[in-house]
Amino acid sequence: PMRSQQRLAAVCALLALLCVWVVFEIGFSPPSTAGPVIKEGPLSAAIDRQAAILAGKLPHTPVKYILGIESVWRPDRGESVPYVVQTLRSLFLHLPSASASVLVVVFLADVDQTRKRKQLDIIQTEFGSEIASGLLLLIQAPAHFYPPPEQSYNVFQDSKERVHWRQKQALDCAFLFLYCHRLSSYFVQLEDDIETYAGYLSGIESFVRHASQPWLVLELSHLGFIGKLFRSNDLWRLGLLFYLYYAELPVDFTIQYFVALNGLQDKHQLRSPTLFRHIGIVSSLSGKNQTLQDMLQPKEWEMKIPPLNNPPALLSSDMTGFGSTLPSNAYDDAPGSFWASNVQMNQHITVTLDQPLLLQRIIVVTGNTPGKEGSDDLFEPGVLEIQWAGEDDFTVVKRFEQGQVDIGIGADRAAAAAVRLRALDAPTRWVLFRRIRLVPRYGA
Q: Is the whole-model pTM more than 0.90?
């Protein structure tokens, strides 16, 4: 074990030295958006964007978000619907109709051409309209992109099959990252066996908007390499690092070193609840099953609340948030929460509507296990208050009971200008605000 640790330390030291060279000698010579990504060096002519397309088309101008997926056929699953099809169904089902700001790029990474063609045919059959509209792009890598497997760099003393599988995964990531560089403002790395939730795009946008600066990677999932968000400009350097160290390091390790070497981000920025749920059991490594679940994924009770579009509003609070959580996390369309610490009497969260609005219903959910006896982190004692249009003061309309409020607003009431959640006392050391929902009156 000691010798393995020494080898790993030596690899890390070498990585640090070469990363500096990559960053300063190569990383600031990015390619153009339209042509091949790499024009010189060891990857010369390895990535030609147009030649790599299996189906779909490149965007005329950079989009805001690329959702990137590497996918291979799982022979161990027999004739089941490929995981990637389930993933795409979920992504498109919960994507707003006005989705011009998004491009989903699926890299079909099978070496076996028969399997790749089978998967391509299935995807084209089901998602023909998304391909035609420019929402979905399917790509492949040329065979010469892949160097031969390196068994000599078995840092973790794994089987030959696992070493080659991990190296192939790193090279797949390298190709996808280099291909997608500067095709968007932001890039979200996904896996081909996930599901997502209603409002996930607005959840991503809000998390990016409120992220602590500076940052290199934002995490939308707690598991592995799922839901990692990067600026597109950083894909060039990251892709090169994946390629240079495919034989030594798993991709998640490479990202950790990339962040550490840049010295810009000193903490993880993880969204809670997370936006993507891992559904795959059969791994792309033959004979391996993967049963890990994200501990921070939305709970069953959260999924029972129908997706609602909260009206535009400004959220303000004098409560102290834990970590990177914000009051807006509980107000956004996607699953989210705000964890407040040391809440004091009269501290509040105020939702100031962009314009006065007739409301039909207000729902506020707090606590770590809402609806269950013995739930902790409740907002109690506290009250829900409304500032009616044209008035200066707030009016108490409901007291929190077991940390919850669900109240209908009479049709005869005036428009609301703002809604406030105010503590009557110091409720507990912690308060977990799960949901703040304002439902406009139909026809308002």
A: no
